[in-house]
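question for whoever is on the cluster today: can someone run the full assembly for these? two chains, 379 residues total. i dont have access anymore since they changed the login thing
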Amino acid sequence: MLDTATAYNRYKFIGHEFLTWLWYRIEMDNIVLNHSDLATMTLALGKRMVLENPRENHAETITIKGGYSNFETGFLPLKQGALVTEMSLEAKSQEVTWEFNLKGESLAVANMRISNLGPTETDEDIEASVLEKVYVLEQIHLYIDTLFEKFMILRISNQWDQKVVPQMQQWLQIH
Amino acid sequence: MSLLATATSITRYHVLEELEKPITEGVYAGLQENRIPEIDDVETALSSGWTSFQDPYTPKFEGSSFVYGSYFLFSLRIDKKTIPSKLIQKYMAIEIAKKCQATGRDFLSRNEKQMIKEHVVNLLNLRIPATPNIYNVLWNYESALVWFFTHLKGPNEILETLFKTSFGLTLKRIFPFSFAESNPKMSEFDHDQLLSLSPTNFQR
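^ ran it for u. tokens below:
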């Protein structure tokens, strides 16, 4: 069994490929998940993306900010071998919107902002607020985990090399 | 960073072992024994330990105050005294001058200066209050998951050590490989496939 630090560093690329695949899926057909515990959600790119080219002697990092139209500039580094290492995303269900940054190497969310959560006014409110916040955080983590599971099933199958990679290469060519 | 803050960052962990029953009492004992020690009136510069979620400056865990629904919720508090370097310089200059006057010498050896510095730092640590930093910990015991509300490396390392000391349980950080590796849906063949993965070349 690999120790944590070795596994983290050796397989860091899995998370980066996941985010790159996520960008491709959001742009091509958006993503529909069938999960009994999940409300229907839509996923969109946020306002920031970080790419890194790991094949250079000195890793090159490109940060793109501003919005979708600016992400077009990310295709050139992708064509040169870069992968997405971090991206901001916006997930929406009927009641709630989650805005957050997702880091590929750790699958950790940062700067998570959630709309439509009521304010906490009294001590009695605190337990209810905690449980409500935990519930919506669990929903978004379940969503991210389900997406990642879907990616991993593809990634370790023959479909990855035979179907997904050629499709993603084609996607890169049209930009 | 707080669970109830407008913006939150979360590091996720799997808890590898289980507590002996009764669980709530075991968690209470671990929290109580490893409460944050106050360091305001002692020379210690750094202290860490558990504190309560709602009242982090007077750590108390009585009456299952750390139980929220089916979760355990408490905080890791790290107190640190930070002495500005210019303050150390000022008091060192004063102490060096005193010593030179007392001994009738013009200068002090490196060892003497080092001893004066340690003395000054200890004195200032007694007078300067510690700055508390509070990070929430949410433990879903049923799912064997812990959420720690920061990505900072230092606090995460302290959490992993203190969790083991307090409850005798190991925290394993969740990241893409560990997530895939511990997924119960993965067969032995899938594990072999996972281990043999290498980076994809998307260039044509």
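summary bc i know u wont read the tokens: Chain A touches chain B through 53 residues (CB under 8 Å). The two ends of chain A are 42 Å apart (CA to CA).
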